[in-house]
Write a structure and sequence with these properties.
Elements (H helix, E strand, L loop, with lengths): L4 E6 L3 E5 L13 E5 L1 H11 L4 E8 L2 H12 L3 E7 L8 E5 L8 E5 L21 E7 L7 H16 L3 E5 L9 H11 L5 E5 H6 L7 H12 L3 E5 L5 E5 L2 E5 L12 H14 L4 H15 L11 H9 L7
Parallel strand pairs: 1-4, 1-8, 2-6, 4-5, 8-9, 9-10, 10-11
Antiparallel strand pairs: 2-3, 6-7, 11-12, 12-13
Helix pairs in contact: 1-7, 7-8, 8-9
Organism: Halorubrum yunnanense
GO molecular function, one term: kinase activity
Pfam families: PfkB
């Protein structure tokens, strides 16, 4: 990997297996297969919005590992993979069963002993970091194993030394660890983070923050020295704090077909606009539009275009031109 890179992301990507809508996992005779992982979701969303994006990870050198790489590359993402022996490693999977009210959608993870849990930073092809404008990862990756946590810290450090702006999406997962363990790990990483994305709910329940979104953003920026804090508030939109200035953004209406990956699309839209020279207000608007568009698309990935986002922002969505 040579030349200038806009965005490098690092983390696990799994195979998402879903029965046809309306069927249960216990009776399904076929499963739809797709790629799904927070950091690769961001890379795909950003790449589709015109960003040169690279995703770093570790996978078994197997048909399943190559399947994931092929899908990400089909959306324009460059991949930097440490290939592992397929006899001693595996691809993580998760099963997603769509369901309406009152049953709801359910997720079952099967990611123990995935190749990413044995990752070492020096085995990753990190050349793209040397010229990257931004580096992004999430709070999911350090929860996977001690080695994954160490690699996360090492890559955040390396990105900072290379002059990249480093972003971190808290992305707390209760199925991976408890709030106390997560908070301790996150706060160790915060010294190496420039831009923090955090849901208001997780700021309160995991980081033990009080107050509204603006108060939370000010408190986190003051304590940890973040350049930018973006607090998402679900249906109430998002708030960003940068250099003392506060920016607010509402949500765009969307008919939800698949909500998985909405937060990753939000981050992708934000980073894409910032990388293309937009200010924080414009980036929040693109983030909200990308998130709304993602909700209309099946799968984890935001299969969208800059024109789609511009139409939503401009109020022209749904017009056949």
């Amino acid at each position: 990997m040579v030349g200038v890179t806009d965005l490098v992301t690092f983390g696990e990507t799994m195979l998402r297996l879903s029965p046809p809508r309306g069927e249960r996992l216990e009776t399904a005779r076929s499963l739809d297969v797709q790629a799904g992982g927070a950091e690769s979701n961001v890379a795909v969303g950003a790449a589709r919005l015109g960003v040169d994006a690279v995703w770093l990870s570790k996978l078994p050198e197997s048909p399943l590992g190559r399947r994931l790489v092929g899908e990400l590359r089909s959306h324009g993402v460059r991949t930097g993979v440490a290939w592992a022996d397929p006899e001693s490693s595996r691809v993580g999977t998760y099963y997603l069963e769509h369901g309406g009210e009152p049953r709801g959608t359910s997720v079952i993870y099967d990611r123990a002993d995935a190749a990413i849990t044995t990752v070492e930073p020096d085995e990753l092809p990190t050349g793209a970091l040397e010229s990257a404008a931004r580096f992004h990862t999430t709070g999911i990756t350090p929860a996977l194993s001690d080695r994954a946590a160490e690699a996360t810290t090492a890559l955040l450090r390396a990105a900072g030394e290379a002059g990249a702006t480093r972003s971190f999406d808290l992305n707390y997962r209760a199925k991976l660890w408890d709030p106390e363990a997560a908070r301790a790990a996150y706060e160790e990483l915060f010294a190496h983070v420039d831009t923090l994305f955090v849901p208001r709910r997780d700021a309160r329940e995991v980081l033990d923050r009080e107050g509204d979104a603006v108060e939370i953003a000010h408190g986190l920026a003051s304590e940890f020295g973040f350049d930018t804090v973006v607090v998402t508030r679900g249906t109430e939109g998002a708030v960003a704090l940068r250099n003392g200035s506060v920016y607010e953004q509402g949500v765009f209406d969307a008919e939800t077909f698949d909500a998985i990956g909405t937060g990753d699309a939000f981050v992708a839209g934000y980073l894409a606009k910032r990388l293309n020279g937009g200010g924080v207000a414009d980036a929040l608007e693109w983030a909200a539009a990308a998130a709304a568009l993602k909700r209309t698309v099946d799968g984890d990935l935001a299969v969208i275009t800059p024109e789609d986002v511009a139409d939503v922002v401009g109020g022209a969505a749904g017009i056949d031109r």
